[in-house]
From TrEMBL, chain A:
GO terms for biological process: glutathione metabolic process; toxin catabolic process. This is Glutathione S-transferase. Residues 92-216 form the GST C-terminal domain. Residues 7-87 form the GST N-terminal domain. GO terms for cellular component: cytosol.
Automatic annotation (TrEMBL), chain B:
Residues 5-84 form the GST N-terminal domain. It comes from the Eukaryota. This is Glutathione S-transferase. Belongs to the GST superfamily. Tau family. One of its GO terms (biological process) is toxin catabolic process. It comes from Trapa incisa. InterPro entries: Glutathione-S-Trfase_C-like, Glutathione-S-Trfase_C_sf, Glutathione_S-Trfase, Glutathione_S-Trfase_N, GST_C_Tau, Omega/Tau-like, Thioredoxin-like_sf. GO terms for molecular function: glutathione transferase activity. It is found in: Cytoplasm, Cytosol. GO terms for cellular component: cytosol. It catalyses: RX + glutathione = an S-substituted glutathione + a halide anion + H(+). Is involved in the conjugation of reduced glutathione to a wide number of exogenous and endogenous hydrophobic electrophiles. PANTHER family: GLUTATHIONE S-TRANSFERASE U9, GLUTATHIONE S-TRANSFERASE, GST, SUPERFAMILY, GST DOMAIN CONTAINING. Residues 90-221 form the GST C-terminal domain.
Amino acid sequence: MAMADQTNVKLLGMWASPFVRRVQWALSLKGVISYDYVEEDILNKSSLLLELNPVHQKVPVLIHDGKVICESLVILEYMDETWKGIPLLPHDPHGRAMARFWARFSDEKLEPNAWTAMCSEGEEKEGALKRAIEAASKIEEQLIKGRRFFGGDDIGYLDVAMGWVACWLPVWEEVGAMSIVDPARHPRITSWAGDFLSHPLIRTNLPPKDEMVDYFHGKRKRIMAH
Amino acid sequence: MAGEGRVTLHGTWASPYSKRVELALKVKGIEYEYVEEDLMNKSSLLLQYNPVHKKIPILVHNGKPIVESMVILEYIEETWSDGPRLLPEDPYERAKIRFWATFLHQQVFEVLVLVLKTDGEAQAKAMEQLHEKLKLLEEGIKGSFPGGSPAVNGENMGLLDIVVCSYFGPYKVHEEVLGLKYLDSEKYPLVTSWVKSLVQYPAVKESTPPHEKSVALVRYFREKALQSPAGVL
């Protein structure tokens, strides 16, 4: 297996961002062990970030040999095409389409609703919570019984894309005093989440839970103060 | 590996999402059956093929459905890998195209729709946002594709051309209904010339509905939206 080309890989990130962490998980899967990591202060964005991602002004931003790539799912595709090691996406076009579909679904239907439910109250919260639970239930229906991961026996693109559900969602549920993924209603997601978090490449690459709870309590407070 | 087997596209004539799949199929020279869906009266087949979103477009290949237009486009590119490319070979060039396609898909269209659905102050605000997006696109294209329009081998439309065309191709229809121009060739020379050259492609001309038909539909959509300020389409 050819050595992953690690020359000049830099990642602009933020420790509590689920989208940044998915890139870090993927880097780990690809065997890119040493890279420059720059922690961004989201409330005080660096001129580098604004220069490299003028359109969204967000992290993650991956810089590889001077090439700048933004948007976490675009970065994952770039990584899969650049570093040949462990494949992230499956080989067959249909499998790839399914993985891409569910990654987008998680980002478009589950994440924004979970976030809104955490940072709102009353009717707005109820509506967002309902939509988040519906989204989780659709994901539950799609998970295949008897397969540990979305990627099969080992983790892949969709596990990395959905990993925030295992790690961030429980924190948001606590901060928002709510339940979205429920072991009784979503046994497959619950079981997958446990397997994902204990995977050797993942378990050493998780943000500290207590700090996450504090951080998101703070964020929720700031958002709801407006 | 050339894709084999029956291809059916379930779509609607006025949907930009449906349009982009049509364009991709035409660029690739893929033979397909087209099924016009009635979104006010969704067929059981549509619901069966897309239980999650219950939307079009749906591409059915060898009996298996693929949904979400951007996912479908990538599937078409990977399955029919002979013939014209929708994406370049280089991973970085591909990343740039995906980035801009995502930007357009996630941010630009909803603002355009907002402009079409509103009037007065709300519309002025939406128009401002649309101009912001167009400005970002203009500058971004200049930076990302210094050689100009991302048509992959200079002849056929590529993925980003298809996405741009699906949203802005009908600009004349929008401008007629609005009584306003937004594709300003002085402010956005690159984007404007790009769109204008895209609508000249035979595949685009072939699949563009008659102007008056589109104007009537967009006008109807706008009027309905203006009548119900709270619960909009």
